[in-house]
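Look at a sample.

——
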Amino acid sequence: MLYRTAGQFKTSYRADQALFPIKQDAFLLGVILICAWVVFPLTASEFTFQTILTPILIYSLAALGLNILTGFAGQLSLGTGAFMGVGAYACYKMITLMPWMNPIIAILLSGVFSAGVGVMFGIPSLRIKGFYLAIATLAAQFFLVWLFEKWAWLYNYNASGAIQVPNLDMFGVYVSGPQASSMTQYYVVLFIVTLLTYLCINLTRGNLGRTWKATRDMDIAAELIGINLMKSKLTAFAVSSYVVGVAGALFVFMWRGAAEPNLFDIPLSFRVLFIAIIGGLGSIMGNYLGAILIVGLPVVLNTVPSVLGIHVESALLEHLNIMIVGSLIIFFLIIEPHGLNQLWRLIREKLTIWPFPH
């Protein structure tokens, strides 16, 4: 049995509530971390860093932030792209106003501004919910993108209206800008994503996470048992917006290198939402599985026909990508609403009892 649980006894409540109650889970995570920190950087090419590894991590972090709000707290949001923009512009202003600031500190602090904006637009959640809350966050999406375009101070009065990432170094090594290597940027992204994922796992497993889940399942019953709905919803908006804002700063500073206001428009919000839905709402691992699928699918569609010697127009490949993603969303909403994370959970249960049928 690959997931043999015989002999793994729990002798205390602490052991029973451990992050990895089964040793195989900890071993699997160790293998994943070794691959992410050692194997991939030593074997990946520049193309792999720019098109697969770095965007997967950034989109996973953005989906994680959205999942905290929608999957764990049950508050709908369609303004993820705009909150990513708040983090990106905040990081840009801090770097230009304080060039001596450490880039990683600036990226982590940029989420604070996004959290403040998220709480401000999350206040309507105290009175409305469901479809109406989604429309309120959609209004935030349009307003913030308009603000990025019209408030020239945000992009330092640049004639093009875009923000350009300068060359930033740490200990003599460039971590962002044209002179930074893709491997260095990947390590920065990996460090921040690992840190925030660890913090979010502990938040969702603690008292705050249980409060969010109670609010999601039935807010009236949660209020009757003494849960402060205002605190629960606003903290969900704050934590979610913080994580999304950090993802937005990484999106521009560690991957794109430049950004215009329309980069954070509604298609970006929908893409992050698709990752969360396909991966599985209310899960941590699902964000990574969904990002691997959404980011890797266009790469597969572009490389497989050329390997097979088949010429396919780029416009057709783009349409195929959209059709496949749309079909996957419909499939998971109907067949498996809990997404790829639930499929992994079922596989894990089968491995636990294999080779016995039940």
Summary: The mean pLDDT is 87. Strands lie at 163-164, 168-170, 173-176, 258-259. The first strand starts at residue 163 and ends at 164.
